[in-house]
Amino acid sequence: FVWLRLPVGMNAADVDVAARAHNVGIVLGSGCTVVPAQHTDSIRLSFCSTLPTAIPRGIRRLAAAIAAVRE
Q: How many distinct helices (H) and strands (E) make up the chain?
């Protein structure tokens, strides 16, 4: 797993919606803590069941999702 802190002011829930639109699954950081109000600016990425050749494509899609939220 990789823990990713999003740019300042960005909410992971908004990125989740955009990521799904770009066919990328993420886990909200708030789902990885006992205090749900924490880590709303973070996401967890899993690539353990992803083919190594597909990872760059997923990264590009996630970058596009994050860019869409920034706009």
A: 2, 3
Q: Per residue in 30-52, pLDDT tens?
A: 988 888 788 999 999 998 888 99
- How many angstroms separate the CA atoms of 4 and 50, rounded? 18
User: Model-level pTM?
Assistant: 0.89
Contact 68, 19 (CB under 8 A): no
Q: Of the candidates 18, 9, 28, which has an alpha carbon nearest to the alpha carbon of residue 63? A: 18
Tokens coding 47 = 């690539």
CB proximity list for 56: less than 8 A, separation 6 or greater = none
The predicted model gives 12-41 an average pLDDT of 93
Q: Report the SS3 class of residue 6.
A: coil
DSSP designation for 67: H
